Amino acid sequence: MKKDRKVVLDTETTGMNFTGCFYENHRIIEIGAVEIINNHITGNNFHSYIFPERSIDKNAFKIHGISSNFLSCKPKFSEIIVPFLTYLDNSDLIIHNAKFDIGFINYELSMLKLNVKNISENCNIIDTLSMARKIFPGKKNTLDSLCTRYKIDITNRTIHSAIYDAKLLAKVYIFMTNFQKSLPIFDNNVFENYLSKKAYSKHARSKILLATEHESISHKNYLKYMMNISGKCIWLTE
């Protein structure tokens, strides 16, 4: 069977530039990536903190809690680029709000002045934010909102973390892609097989409660009673 390899990716940065390109003059400080093969999370992850060679904005620090002092002994982007690009090779990239992360990665690549194409030219980019807006139009589609919607535990997500958020997004993506498939409701055998797939959450299965014999008898007696008092003909089925 052909291996369907996808990489779920997230980054944390020193901040954002709100005048022009949001990535210009800011740097990536953490990359987290999670591998999915044939719709299963493999555990083969890529994770690295990065020394950005500049300070971190106060507002950015409030979001991810990563300090300049912590990063002072971490590798530069140029030192992790080879293993990073090797990890991404032969995969689709899954990113929430892809424009943000792809912009930062391409900016980092441009500063290295290497003969490396933009990430979007090397990888097929799948933006889960765009997907979510089509599946849940008019609703809030942040990562937190999607996790809550799919009953994915986010109690430990007190601050942003590239690797932790990539792990959450990997679970979200599996739910999103399974839910997009049409349900074969007219074929019970196929439907049962669909529900039995591991990727389909137990939370998505609806429990069907059938009426007891006593409840069925009570219901029929009620219909007979209503027929008598209304004078209308009500057909009863056995």
TrEMBL record:
Pfam family, one: RNase_T
Annotated substrate binding sites: D10, E12, H64, D165
Active site: H160
Catalysed reaction equations from the record: DNA(n) + a 2'-deoxyribonucleoside 5'-triphosphate = DNA(n+1) + diphosphate
Molecular functions (GO terms): 3'-5' exonuclease activity; DNA binding; DNA-directed DNA polymerase activity; metal ion binding
Keyword Lipid metabolism: no
Keywords, alphabetical: DNA replication, DNA-directed DNA polymerase, Exonuclease, Hydrolase, Magnesium, Manganese, Metal-binding, Nuclease, Nucleotidyltransferase, Transferase
Spans traversing the lipid bilayer: none
Gene Ontology biological process terms from the UniProt entry: DNA replication proofreading
The protein's required cofactors: Mg(2+); Mn(2+)
Keyword Nucleotidyltransferase: yes
EC number: 2.7.7.7
Cofactor details (free text): Binds 2 divalent metal cations. Magnesium or manganese.
Residues that coordinate or bind a divalent metal cation: D10, E12, D165
Domain Exonuclease: start-end pairs: 5-182
Gene Ontology CC annotation, any one: cytosol
Top class in the EC scheme: transferase
Subunit structure: The DNA polymerase holoenzyme is a complex that contains 10 different types of subunits. These subunits are organized into 3 functionally essential subassemblies: the pol III core, the beta sliding clamp processivity factor and the clamp-loading complex. The pol III core (subunits alpha,epsilon and theta) contains the polymerase and the 3'-5' exonuclease proofreading activities. The polymerase is tethered to the template via the sliding clamp processivity factor.
Function description: DNA polymerase III is a complex, multichain enzyme responsible for most of the replicative synthesis in bacteria. The epsilon subunit contain the editing function and is a proofreading 3'-5' exonuclease.
Name assigned to this protein: DNA polymerase III subunit epsilon
Source organism of this protein record: Buchnera aphidicola subsp. Schlechtendalia chinensis
Gene: dnaQ
